[in-house]
Each structure stands twice: as structure tokens, then as C-alpha cells.
């Protein structure tokens, strides 16, 4: 999700978390619990979108099973994959993506 005026992941999360985010990694870049995880990309900004920063999120609300280590692995791998996309590299909004296949 692109968000302007969001200095960090905690600001991005705001009140969106459904559980206590009692784990963090990389000095707060990633916040997570056994059910959900949030992250901030590196160098994914968009001048077209008012200098917005790109954030990532996963929320698993339908399971009684919790696994904070798995959520950490999921959010860090997903965020790093997002950083390699044209969306990140060119600051594109998700609605402007085109596929030429």
C-alpha cells in the first residue's frame, strides 16, 4: 500500500492491527505477531503519488494457529520481493500496472 506522510511502519499500521504486534525486526521496519505482519520497503517512493512510501501487510484472521517466526519470514521475503517490482522501482500506483505478455 502506498502511503504519504508515513515515517515508519508503526505509523502505517495505526489501528489496523487485529492483534498485539509484539515482535519487531530491523529496528521496527517489520512489526508482526503470530497472526499478522507489516513492513516498510526500502527506496520505494513515488513522486507521482505525493512522495508516498510503499508498505506491505499480511493478516491471517481465520486461524487459531499462531506462528510469529513464520509471519516474520513471510513479511520479510514478501517485502524484499516487492522491492524488485516495477511498482517499487518506478513508483507506479497499482491501478496503472500493465502486463505485456
Sequence-ordered SSE layout with sheet pairings:
Blueprint: E1 2-3, H1 9-13, E2 23-25, E3 30-32, E4 36-46, E5 52-59, H2 68-82, H3 86-89
Description:
By secondary structure, this protein is of the alpha+beta class. The chain has one domain (2-93). 24% of the residues lie in helices and 27% in strands. The protein contains 3 helices and 5 strands. The chain has helices at 9-13, 68-82, 86-89; strands spanning 2-3, 23-25, 30-32, 36-46, 52-59. The protein has a 5-stranded antiparallel β-sheet with strand order 1-5-4-3-2. The model has no long low-confidence stretch (mean pLDDT 87).
Provide the helix percentage: 10-25%
* Low-confidence region ranges: none
Query: Averaged pLDDT, please?
Result: 87
Order of H and E elements:
EHEEEEHH
Number of H/I helices: 3
Short description:
The chain is α+β, with helices and mostly antiparallel strands.
Amino acid at each position: 500500500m502506498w502511503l504519504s506522510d508515513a515515517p515508519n511502519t508503526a505509523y502505517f499500521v495505526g489501528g489496523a492491527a487485529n492483534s498485539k504486534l509484539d515482535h519487531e525486526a530491523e529496528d521496527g521496519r517489520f512489526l508482526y505477531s503470530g497472526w499478522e505482519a507489516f513492513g516498510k520497503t526500502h527506496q520505494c517512493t513515488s513522486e507521482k503519488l505525493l512522495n508516498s512510501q510503499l508498505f506491505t501487510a499480511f493478516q491471517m484472521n481465520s486461524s487459531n494457529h499462531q506462528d510469529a517466526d513464520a509471519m516474520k519470514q513471510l513479511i520479510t521475503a514478501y517485502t524484499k520481493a516487492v522491492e524488485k517490482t516495477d511498482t517499487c522501482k518506478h513508483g507506479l500506483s497499482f491501478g496503472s500496472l500493465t502486463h505485456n505478455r
